[in-house]
Design brief:
Mean pLDDT: 90
Strand content: over 45%
Low-confidence stretches: none
Largest sheet: 5 strands, antiparallel
Distance between the termini: 39 Å
Number of strands: 9
Strand order of the largest sheet: 1-2-9-4-7
Order of helices and strands: EEEEEEEEE
């Protein structure tokens, strides 16, 4: 099952996602991205280094920081992310 839920308020986008199996190609965001893995393991390559976010693990991506992503194993993952415009940190 694949499910995305989005909510946007001012300069923050909130995402809730649930996947049984997924892969993201290398990409980046214009915003800062802060998230928590709620179930499963999310794995990704960031700045040439393998990372794994387990249940309750926190992920932080700087703006324009390239990364990929995929679920580890077949159990899938649930996670939430906030995408925050840089102006809010100024």
């Amino acid at each position: 099952m694949e499910k995305f839920n989005y909510a946007k308020s001012a300069d923050i986008l909130a995402l809730s996602a649930s996947f049984t199996d997924f892969t993201y190609k290398k990409h980046c965001h214009e915003e800062y991205a802060l998230g928590v893995t709620l179930r499963g393991i999310q794995q990704y390559n960031l700045d040439g280094s393998y990372q794994a976010s387990h249940k309750n693990g926190v992920m932080l991506f700087n703006r324009e920081q390239y990364h990929d992503g995929s679920s580890y194993g077949r159990e899938g993952i649930d996670y939430v992310m906030l995408y925050i415009k840089p102006e809010l940190f100024s």
